[in-house]
Amino acid sequence: MAKTIQAIRGMNDCLPAQSGIWQFVEQHIRDLTKSYHYQEIRTPIVESTDLFKRSIGEVTDIVEKEMYTFDDRNGDSLTLRPEGTACAVRAGNQHGLLYNQQQRLWYMGPMFRHERPQKGRYRQFHQFGVEAYGFDGPDIDIEVILMGARLWKAFGIADKVTLQINSLGSNEARAAYKEKLVSFLKSVEDKLDDDSKRRLSSNPLRVLDSKNPDTQSAIKDAPRLLDHLDEASKQHFDILCERLQNLGIAFEVNPSLVRGLDYYNRTVFEWVTDMLGAQGTVCAGGRYDGLVEQLGGKATPAVGFAMGLERLVLLIESISDDAKFEPRADVYITALGDASQCKAMELAETLRSACPGVSIQLHCGAGNMKKQMKKADASGAKVAVIIGESELQNNAFGVKYLREDKPQSSLDKNALIALLNAF
C-alpha cells in the first residue's frame, strides 16, 4: 500500500466545512473596497529576492530567517512573497501607475514565511491589504484606519479590537533619535534579551517592540520617539489624532509601536485584540513615503495596511455561531423514476437560470423518497422540491418546507420561481 502524502507542515487545507466563513470574510472585504473605490491588484506569488531585501531590510527577521528563497534554473534568486506592499510598489513602478498620480489599490492572497506554526500563524497564510499612493496629508491615513473600523463593525468584532497608533517621524528625525536610543540601550545592555542585543546594532527601534517582560522593564525609561519628531511629522500626527477623535474612533497612543519593517515613516498603527493569545495583532500598517523611490521609482507618498485572514477568521469564530457559516443549499430537488429524474434535471437548470444566487442541489443516484428526503434535510435546504408521477401528470411540483412549520404545497413552474426568488 502506497504511503499517504500529507500537506507540508504549516501549509493548511481549507475544507468545505471551513470555506463558508472564508467566503463570508472575503465578500465583506470586496464590499468594503468597492465602497471606498479601491481597485484590485494581483501580483505574482514569486518575486526577485532583491525586492524584499531592498524593501523590508536585510537585517529584519523576515529576510534573515523567514523567507522561502531558492535559485531557479537560470541561477536567479527568487522568493515566495512574505508580504504584499513591496509587490504592489514593484508592480506600480514597472507599469507606470505611481509617479505624479493617485492610486487606491487592494490585494488579497497567500503569503509565505518560514515561522514556527502556531494557532493563527501558518507558513502559508493569507493577507488582505490596501495601498494608497500620491497622498501626503493625514486624511488618507485616517481613511485607511476608517476602513478597518468599518470592517470590524461588519464582522461584529468592533468591541474586540483596539486601535494603537504612533508616529516614527521623518527618516532624518528618526536617525537622530536612533543615536539617543542606542546610547540609552547600551547603558542597560546587560538587562536586554539576546534578540534585543542583536538588534542594538542592526535595528535598535525594534528593541522598543520587544515582547520580553524583562527587556520591557529595562527600557521603560528609554527616550520616546514622539518627543523627537520633526515639526512636520508632529503636526501630521496631531491632525491625525484630532480627526480620529472627531470621528469617534477610539485609539491609544503607543510610543513603543514601531512595526517590524524598515520602510515605515510617520504614522504607524495596529488593531490589536486580547482574544487570540500571543498573536494579538489583527491588522497593521502605516506610511512608507520613501519605499517607491527606494525601489527605483520617483518619490511618492504612500500609506497602507495588511491583515492576516487566518487570525481574523479565528476572531470571528470565537464570537459567532458556527452554524452561521455552514455551507447549505437553498433547494433540494428529489425525483422518483426515470421520467421524473429527467424532468428534475431540466427543472434544476431552469431554476438556476431564473433564480440567480439561489443554491440548488439536485439529487443524483438511486434512492427511495425516504432516503432522498433524508439527504434533503442533511443539505440544510429550506425546501425540498418533489417530482413524482403525479407531479409529472399535473405539470406541478411538490414543495415541502424543511425548516418551517408550513403545509406541503403544489406549485407550477412560475410560482416556484417566484417562491425561490423571494429567499
Question: Briefly, what is this?
Answer:
This protein has helices spanning 16-35, 49-56, 61-66, 85-94, 138-155, 171-187, 194-202, 205-208, 213-218, 231-246, 291-294, 309-319, 338-354, 369-378, 389-394, 413-421; strands at residues 39-40, 46-48, 68-71, 77-80, 103-112, 124-133, 162-167, 252-253, 265-272, 281-287, 302-308, 331-335, 360-362, 383-387, 397-401, 409-411.
Fraction in beta strands: 15-25%
Secondary structure: helix percent = 40-55%
Secondary structure tally, helices: 16
The overall pLDDT average reads 90
Secondary structure class reads alpha+beta
Strand order in the largest sheet: 1-5-6-11-10-9-7-8
Largest sheet, in brief, is: 8 strands, mixed
For the CA atoms, what is the radius of gyration?
Answer: 27 Å
Shape: elongated
First CA to last CA: what distance?
A: 49 Å
Low-confidence stretches: none
Number of strands: 16
Characteristics:
five-stranded mixed beta sheet, single chain, 40% helix, alpha+beta, 20% strand, eight-stranded mixed beta sheet
